[in-house]
Amino acid sequence: MTDFARLTAQETLNRNDLLAILGARDISDIEIIRRAAEAVFLRQCGSQVYLRGLVESSNACSCDCLYCGIRKSNKAENRYTLDVDQIAACARQCAELGYGSMVIQSGERSDKKFIDLTIEALRRIKRETQSEAQPDGLGITLCVGQQSRETYQRLYDAGAHRYLLRIESTNPDLFASIHPGDQTFESRLECLGLLRDIGYQVGTGVMIGLPGQTLEDLAGDILFFAEHDIDMIGMGPFVPDPETPLGGEACPSVADRVRLSLLMIAATRLTLRDVNIASTTALQTLDPIGREKGLKFGANVIMPQVTPPEVRKDYQLYPGKPCLDENALECHSCLGARIAFAGRTIGYNVWGDSVHAKRRRSHSMLRSAAE
Ligand code: SAM
Questions:
Q1: 36 confidence band (pLDDT: 50, 70, 90)
Q2: Contact indicator for 178, 67 with CB cutoff of 8 Å
Q3: How is 333-344 classified by DSSP, letter by letter?
Q4: Which of 317, 318, 321 is the pocket-test mutation for ligand 1 (most atoms within 8 Å of CB)?
């Protein structure tokens, strides 16, 4: 029998420790793990939850990921792209609500029109969201997929300072089984390296409960996050979409995917300690209070919806996406109550960079001062 109190008190966890945590099923063992992860979070990061208003700027996509509802072969999708005015309006709304940051997410597009539009939107957001409370304007995270070095650099120069690119699975065989042959694990990895070189705070993550995924794969994912010095993690349960090739394949039950996702959050917090971890929409899709549970297991970032309600239903990566009809204000008031329910307070008007990224920045400043 594993002594979880002893195991979770360790400063570092190895592969076997992670396997034990991820394999926990007994409710009292899970509660010991949860408490330990929450304690590490409170000690390392304080108690605040950071908000990133989520704008889904386009559902057009040039990729054909076998799991994703907006893949290019899905002809049922009504494709849209928000214009610069619409994105800037969403950003101003985030600033007015006191969200310190926003995330711009889209399908995979590297066409000139889309990149130019995104760059103009970034510049407008930076200009139009400055205030006494936020003299530097909103912090901006991009999640617009694989791009060239030049594009990443242009997006950074225009004002984005964090980038989320999920590796989806760090087992190259599993990665290959959920993507078409022209999308490779190596090129995703290379993109993560480019983002780091340019100076972004780098986020990545995986889907949890994929067909054929093992606990060894998930333990390997956490070790990969640590090895690559990742600043922020966005991961959540796989939600099968019947309109996709992977939608009909066997995967763990909903309850198992929720439990595994919460244990992944806890195990990642216990291993990486001072990073930001998002409690994702996919968790809320499978469990109405999944996002709040994510906070209790060590997550500290939530991404409230600010996408205009009229296009929100067209950005469905999987069925059952919550908050389809609510406007940003309604999402906001519901969110305050949900975060209070999880016993946390909201960090208003702050970018909410991870402690990990702040530590790295001050180490590199000290190093260059010494040189
Ligand atoms: N195109 C960009 C990229 O690939 O990084 C950003 C958008 S992409 C749709 C955002 C994330 O949605 C993916 O990284 C993937 O992990 C997640 N996703 C897509 N389909 C999903 C599904 N069926 N279940 C759970 N997550 C899914």
A1: very high
A2: yes
A3: HHHHHHHHHTT-
A4: 317
pLDDT of residue 325: 74
Q: What is the pLDDT of residue 113?
A: 98
Task: Give the pLDDT mean for 230-251.
Answer: 97
81 forms bridges with which residues in the sheet? 58
Q: Report helix, strand and coil shares of the chain as percent, to nearest 5.
A: 45, 15, 40
Q: Which two tokens stand for residue 149?
A: 């070095």
21 burial (CB, 10 Å; 0-12 / 13-18 / 19+) is buried
The ligand 1 atom at the shortest distance from the C-alpha of residue 164 is 5
Vertex 260 angle, CA 294 and 26, to 5°? 100
pLDDT tens profile 123-150: 999 999 999 999 999 999 999 999 999 9
Given CA atoms 190, 196, 199, 201 in this order, what sign does their dihedral have? Answer: positive
Ligand 1 neighbourhood includes 105 CB (under 6 angstroms): yes
The closest residue, in CA terms, to atom 19 on ligand 1 is 68
Residues 84-120: tens digit of each pLDDT: 999 999 999 999 999 999 999 999 999 999 999 999 9
Q: Which amino acid is at 354?
A: S
**Residue 327, pLDDT score:** 74
Cβ-in-10-Å burial (0-12, 13-18, 19+) of 249 comes to middle
Contacts of 201 (CB under 8 A, 6+ apart): 161, 162, 163, 231, 232, 353, 354, 357
Angle at 349 between CA 301 and CA 303, to 5 degrees: 30
